[in-house]
Amino acid sequence: MIAFLIKRIVQAILVMFIISLVSFSIQDNLGDPLRELVGQSVSEEERQALRDQLGLNDPFLVQYGRFAVKALHGDLGTSYFFKEPALQVILHKLPATLELVFGATLIIVLLSVPLGVYSAIKPNSLFSRAVMGLSIIGISVPVFLTAIGLIYLFSIYLGWMPSFGRGETEPVFGPWETGFLTVDGLQHLVLPCISLASIMLPLFIRLIRAEMMEVLQSEYVKFAWAKGLAPRRIYFLHALKNTMLPVITVGGVQIGTMVAYTILTETVFQWPGMGFLFLEAVNRVDTPLIVAYLIVVGAIFVVTNTLVDLIYGLVNPTVKLTGKK
Amino acid sequence: MALLEVKNLEVRFGLRSGEVHALRDINFTLERGERLGVVGESGAGKSVLGFSILNLLSRPGYIAGGEILFEGRNLAVMSAKELRSIRGNRISMIFQDPMMTLNPVLTIGQQMVECLLAHRKISGRDAKNIALQKLKQVYIPSPEKRFDQYPHELSGGMRQRIVIAIGLLMDPDIIIADEPTTALDVTIQAEIMDLMLELCERNNVALMLITHDLGVVSQVTQQAMVMYAGRIIEQGPTREIINDAQHPYTQGLMNALPQMAIPGQRLNQIRGSMPPLQKIPDGCAFNPRCEYAMEVCQTQLPDYTSSGGCRVACHLVAKMKLEEAAARQIEEAN
Ligand SMILES: Nc1ncnc2c1ncn2[C@@H]1O[C@H](COP(=O)(O)OP(=O)(O)O)[C@@H](O)[C@H]1O
Ligand code: SF4
Ligand SMILES: [Mg+2]
Fold it and tell me: How far, CA to CA in Å, does B63 sit from each of A44, B21, B22, B43, B209?
């Protein structure tokens, strides 16, 4: 257990180091922050003075070193636009994004397991074929098209669901305000969560189906039949438990990836989360904010991967939680 | 009434390339407490036969005809629920590779208790006690500890003992053992075989032993049948088959046994190999490999001829029997 934790922590540090390096070097290539900061009317000399003052003329490694030391103290620079600490700006928007991801994950888990299992057990039934066909369509339609389609149908045409924003939220803790506790907040969550889930859901259904079909061919499932067990027990204990092992690994990583997909969803639904914020930051060349975003997203990746490993180790008895594979 | 009587069983695979016969003309009986050996090269259809008796063929295989009468009831047409009450309860099966047979994510105890609870209305506590007792019967050391372990924590031999214990849980009438020692280390094969023999004798369980080893068949079974390309080509009392094999294929198997080899010389393997189901030759399926093959062998499927207590599917044997009969008649006439 301890070896496992140490291994994960070392990995996490390594990943964060690389992310910080990458995101920091992006700064150099993203236009001139001074223009955003001071406008066009400042002379070249004043600009140079300001550059020196901001340390923008120092060598790369010096700049990175300064950045890293500060970053370790939680200081990722000040947003040029908001004139506030970048990390604080991002963390302020984090709950909205996490709730979106959580809602989408819920939809994916609740639908993909029963649909994947059913279409593995009855691969030739009409329903399974329909699910498989729809999932192909689901994978190939881009998220923003799904989102616009949903808005058109449910908000504009039927008028059932709100089309933008988070609606009414309740404060929970610190900057975290939740939309899960009010009817209005929940209504606002529905469409964005569905469109965010729309890419991953078909992938998960297909993944679970493929794994399950393979497991159903295994000797131990045949042996379970030969023991005279009830189909329910064979499908949902013997087969499903083995099916979920690889699904947890692949799926966990995919859920982490979903954080990146929120950029599109949040933009279409004007969702006040960090994906939306990130796109604005890119438009404004607000580099500290961009860097802070990348680092926070990197941290989320590391955390989800660690959680996934932990869960995998708990479900799979053949994995002892040690550093070894 | 025989405990198990299989009549004209026919199994097919509905493959994309067309229907193929996996089993044809399968007829045999198994009496209570009797041990029957099923021999043949890999691909002969032995496992398919084992699975069809429990009506457990997986797609695209299916029973295309015939009857599987267990105590007079036909398993081939039974409802799923009735079948379940027989599988693992009255007829149990032991698979070839103990590394693959046990579910890796469930404990030994879970996999034993669930079988008992599926067939009997007993408490979990009683089920555990029965399971522990069966583990002792198969000489598992410290069964209490093993009960809570996962399969990967045990050796191959240990796992096969546990699979055997699971097969015995409900005190079945028949055990179908599909090459139960093939996947094991050579050093423990005899041990496991002895254990199976002992348990079957003690509990009066009928054993259908599937193997490619005629040596094991001669040591363990009273009846035997030799399969080739989905058909039984010779069947009868084991002693007769071993001492006086009639079919050229059985003779070939006998000559290939290590015991028959002259020291320092290569084993006398039958030349060629078993054809895949899609390419079974016309006439006698063995004819391309048979040194006695005649013209009729290439066109006509050989019928069964009685020879002593055996039934043999071979044109040559049929011809010899006819000639014998004719000679006898001439003798009698004189
Ligand atoms: N599910 C299946 N689909 C198609 N062919 C199969 C299937 N299972 C077995 N066979 C074929 O049936 C024949 C007999 O197989 P099997 O009973 O496993 O042989 P063995 O005597 O070695 O146990 C083989 O030719 C095998 O390729
Ligand atoms: S029938 Fe013909 S080919 Fe087949 S085993 Fe007998 S002699 Fe050989
Ligand atoms: Mg086999």
Answer: 89, 10, 10, 18, 21
ipTM of the complex: 0.93
Of A225, A226, A238, which is closest to B103 when you measure between CB atoms?
A: A238
- Chain A contact set for B88 (CB, 8 A): 226-229
Nearest chain B residue (CA) to A233: B114
pLDDT tens string, chain A, 325 residues long: the values are 677 778 878 888 888 888 878 877 776 565 566 665 666 667 777 777 777 777 777 777 887 888 788 878 878 778 888 888 888 899 888 999 999 999 999 999 999 999 999 999 999 999 999 999 999 888 888 888 888 888 888 888 887 888 788 877 788 777 777 888 888 888 888 899 999 998 889 999 999 999 999 999 999 999 999 999 999 999 999 999 999 988 888 888 887 788 878 898 999 888 899 999 999 998 888 888 888 888 888 888 888 888 888 888 887 887 765 444 3
Phi, psi of B59 (to 5 degrees): -45, 145
Contact B105 A222 (CB under 8 A): no
Query: Which residues of chain A neighbour B79 with C-beta distances below 8 Å?
Result: none
Residues 6+ apart with CB under 8 A from B64: B10, B11, B12
